[in-house]
Write a structure and sequence with these properties.
This protein has about 180 residues and is an alpha+beta fold. About 50% of the residues lie in helices and about 15% in strands. The chain has a four-stranded antiparallel sheet with strand order 1-2-4-3, with helices on both faces. It binds flavin mononucleotide.
């Protein structure tokens, strides 16, 4: 992916709204084969440990790990999304949550910017399960908390039509008198 395009998409993401304007998002562009493979090893190592702890059969573990590594190796671009725990105004669970919400907003903005350029994206939650391992594998600052990663590239196929929950199931008009 062209550097200028990637930069433009990332810069667009930084215009997302954030709680107190703290801009807690941090992006890690996985920029080399070595980084990609270190990230893959960290994520699937934890995945394997979690599945073993749940007594999942070895064949299932191996399949999942192989599928995950394949997805990561096939993705043209991987961007890890982190929250900087230092970009928080006060130590309160609500403040922490606001930081996470802000990072998610930047993530969606990144996805929309990519879409506007004809790229496809998917948000992957695995780094949430392996925060410390990811931070260690990529040598990230201690306060950067991995929240997810976005795979992006030119889509190989049309996405399936989305089956949405009925509008009335997800919305109420609360009009108390
Ligand atoms: C917070 C979050 C975590 C997700 N984690 C994963 C994931 O780990 N693996 C994956 O394949 N998709 C993941 N997704 C993508 C969703 O599965 C996907 O958005 C959903 O299936 C709906 O598909 P659509 O966005 O194409 O409509 C995640 C999406 C969100 C918002």
């Amino acid at each position: 992916m062209a550097d200028e395009l990637l930069r433009e998409i990332l810069e667009t993401a930084t215009y997302a709204p954030s709680a107190h304007g703290m801009q807690p998002w941090r992006f890690v562009v996985v920029d080399s084969q070595g980084t990609r493979s270190a990230l893959g090893t960290a994520l699937t190592g934890q995945m394997r440990a979690d599945m073993q702890a749940e007594n999942a059969p070895e064949t299932e573990i191996r399949e999942r790990v192989e599928r995950s590594l394949r997805r990561m190796s096939e993705a043209p671009q991987i961007i890890l999304l982190c929250r900087d725990a230092e970009a928080q105004r006060a130590q309160h669970p609500a403040e922490e949550q606001m930081g996470m919400q802000s990072v998610a907003m930047a993530g969606l903005q990144l996805m929309l910017a990519a879409h506007a350029h004809g790229l496809g994206t998917v948000w992957i939650c695995w780094p949430l399960y392996a925060g410390a391992e990811t931070r260690h594998a990529l040598n990230l600052p201690a306060s950067w908390q991995p929240q997810g990663m976005i795979l992006l590239g030119h889509p190989a196929e049309e996405p399936r039509e989305k089956k949405l929950k009925p509008f009335d199931e997800v919305t109420i008009f609360a009009s108390l008198s």
